[in-house]
Design a protein that fits this description.
By secondary structure, the protein is mainly alpha-helical. The chain has eight helices and two strands; from the N terminus they run ααααααβαβα. α1 crosses α4 and α2 packs across α3. The longest helix has 17 residues. It is elongated, with a radius of gyration of 22 Å.
Length: 238
């Protein structure tokens, strides 16, 4: 909801409304707050901003269609104060965050595709663009894949990754690297153990040697004793 409110304030500023006194993190009706700052009724603010939702969000092809539809509805729903009992956009938030994965809950908003292994990457890329668009400097994603490298099933009840699951995890990392140019203003930090850099391809190893497509993207093409590539999209910290 905070991102929707920040987007509303951005559009209002572009239309020359005064928004300096409006706090995006406040609990009140953001349209009423903008109206009070400009001596206008909230209905007039909504009518003036609605074409902006259409042009800047719904037709913005830097985001996937379902994500655009979702954000457009969230902006429309921000006329509801945060402390109000009923908030019409909650099914969209539950669907995006995985609290309710059933697509039937968001069909009333003209959203018909589920978030799954195939589509999640596009939603994530859209979200990263959206965060930057509404005014955040960027996004830091931190992934700890140390559990993926555990080859023996633990007895403490914690999550265990089979070898096929580990390879799926490596495929996901490879896809992130390949789509680096679509991850707007984002730094992704992957934390792992030294076993991850094992290039041996055998049944006992969980290192990158088990998935050559990822290995070729992580390996240095040119190794210099003193210099690193300052424009590389991927760096190694040790």
């Amino acid at each position: 909801r905070l991102t929707a409110r920040k987007c509303i304030l951005r559009l209002a500023e572009e239309l020359s409304y005064r928004t300096n006194e409006v706090d995006a993190a406040s609990d009140g009706n953001v349209y009423e707050a903008i109206g009070d700052a400009n001596n206008l009724p909230s209905e007039a603010i909504i009518r003036r901003l609605r074409p902006g939702f259409e042009d800047r969000i719904f037709r913005n092809r830097s985001m996937s269609k379902d994500f655009r539809v979702a954000m457009s509805h969230l902006c429309e729903q921000e006329g509801t104060p945060r402390d109000h009992i009923f908030y019409g956009g909650q099914p969209i938030i539950d669907w995006l965050t995985g609290s309710n994965t059933r697509v039937t809950s968001v069909k009333p908003f003209s959203i018909y595709n589920s978030v799954n292994r195939t589509t999640a990457k596009y939603f994530l890329e859209s979200a990263l663009y959206w965060f930057h668009y509404v005014g955040f400097t960027g996004t830091l994603m931190m992934l700890d894949n140390s559990r993926v490298l555990v080859s023996k099933r633990p007895t403490d009840g914690s999550r265990y990754y089979t070898r096929p699951m580990a390879l799926q995890s490596y495929q996901l990392l490879r896809e992130f690297i390949d789509s680096a140019d679509r991850m707007t203003a984002t730094m992704m930090l992957t934390i792992s153990t030294s076993e991850f850099l094992n290039i041996e391809n055998d049944r006992r190893s969980r290192g990158i040697g088990a998935y050559q497509a990822l290995q070729t993207r992580i390996m240095d093409d040119v190794k210099d004793r003193n210099l690193i590539n300052p424009v590389a999209s991927l760096v190694r910290l040790a």
